[in-house]
């Protein structure tokens, strides 16, 4: 089972204070965060393809549809439709932040075991980008005045190797990690769309009828 | 009991009696002549009783003494005065015919409903005549038409190489008594081939629908059964109220990593088939095309067209799930499309239209992040604004004013390529009405070159 106890993340350097002069509000950083999720989703597509091929069949088969067993500690993107719609901004951002924190930690574990140098390079690159996304989400939360989620006291996590289990089960865990990561990136895009619309002033929509004629 | 032919000859007799005035048409009371009423029917009954044919199942109440009198005559007599002679015989005939039909069906209707049988196209089938012996003398009929005796094997009907035209109601009768022994309603068809199943979400995140069809017809009734599994959970697929090969599923959870599996089985009297598809929530998202695509010329702008459209009405939440759009346009006379992708907004201005040419414009939609593009919308047509040609002769004589004219009827490069005498040697574009069809022809002829030059 995946046992990700990463010490690094919960001690992220404090987000540098935003330059308050001429502060355009959280809008641009939400847009930036949204753009990052799109970039990461694109990057993940090629990374996942390569990694699943490395795992070999059946993991790289398009119809592979295993039951979700194990990998219980993975943060799940799936949520009831009405619950998702009615999430307040703080909760929405917090859920995203916590999810990616965990996912990044697991990915780093993956990197440790990866067999080929090329895979390790791709994974490392992706981890850096994912770190960037985390920082971006933290920035939005700070701009909106929300506190960053902190780990519970007394459960100070340290990296420890999980209980040994079969090679196949390990591969299953890897498969679900990548799947969950991809789904989270899709969900985040929708989350940040929603946040973007809420932050946007209503008159910002540009209409063609205002365009000057005849020049 | 007299045979059916006997009954018919009696009826004929009765008809004839109707048409000829009978001696008894004298001073009878008019009230006896109840057209179509009980008295005629009673007379019919009486006449038939006279002919010693039992009529079962017909309910004639109250034979009165007068009708008993008629019974002895054995004829359907008209009891009216001469003035009513014309309508009364016809009414009597109509009643007789109706009664005869009832009697006939009573005698010859099958005792049980026809046996329904399904057989495969191209196969051979032997239809036994019910429980009759093999050597019984029978006649077969299909849909009332006699069948040749060479198709018979004893009392059984043998059909080779069944075709669709063989479907019908087959009946076998005892040859002499014409008693109906057995009926078979034969349907010729095929077992079902593997059905074609597809699912799509045009209402994301509300739900998705699945639709199916058979690649080739079976010609006989089929039943379909659809099951939807999300992991191990069974989901309900509600039948579409209008379309019988479609059902709808509602999403309970979004952003699921578990695939959906939709299975369909089809069966009919001749066979069975099934198929299944598996997919992720995101891969089947495909919106409906944008609606109400309208293209308008922009006044005083001969190379512009303003296009507007609306998000499809079936897309439930464009705020949280925004759509992006893809616009394509071309002049009718060219085959190559221009494309523009738009990440938001439902309007766009084309600024590079060929002046004076009619354009065809279409728009497609896609969720910003997931799924596939919709089909192309219904096409909009528009022609850019053109200036009213006024003083034609003066304009045509204006030398080398290409730079200043914005109301040219011909795109400049076209005239350079096809340097015919009519348009002059690289001079200003002629604005005469004659040059317009020429220009159109030139544009059509120089498609690739002109587009290269313009772009």
TrEMBL record, chain A:
An annotated GO BP: positive regulation of B cell proliferation
CC per GO annotation: CNTFR-CLCF1 complex; CRLF-CLCF1 complex; extracellular space
Short name of one Pfam family: PRF
Keyword terms of this UniProt record: Cytokine, Glycoprotein, Secreted, Signal
Species this protein is from: Fukomys damarensis (Damaraland mole rat)
Main location: secreted
Biological classification of the source: Eukaryota, Metazoa, Chordata, Craniata, Vertebrata
Protein name per Swiss-Prot or TrEMBL: Cardiotrophin-like cytokine factor 1
Leader sequence segment: 1-17
Function (record text): In complex with CRLF1, forms a heterodimeric neurotropic cytokine that plays a crucial role during neuronal development. Also stimulates B-cells. Binds to and activates the ILST/gp130 receptor.
GO MF annotations in UniProt: cytokine activity
From TrEMBL, chain B:
Molecular-function GO terms, alphabetical: ciliary neurotrophic factor receptor activity; interleukin-11 binding; interleukin-11 receptor activity
Oligomeric form and interacting partners: Forms a heterotrimer with LIFR and IL6ST. Interacts with heterodimeric neurotropic cytokine composed of CLCF1/CLC and CRLF1/CLF-1. Either alone or in complex with the heterodimer CLCF1-CRLF1 interacts with SORL1; this interaction may promote internalization and lysosomal degradation.
Recorded topology in the membrane: Lipid-anchor; GPI-anchor
Residues in the signal sequence: 1-19
Name recorded for this polypeptide: Ciliary neurotrophic factor receptor subunit alpha
Single Gene Ontology BP annotation: positive regulation of cell population proliferation
Ig-like domain: residues covered: 110-172
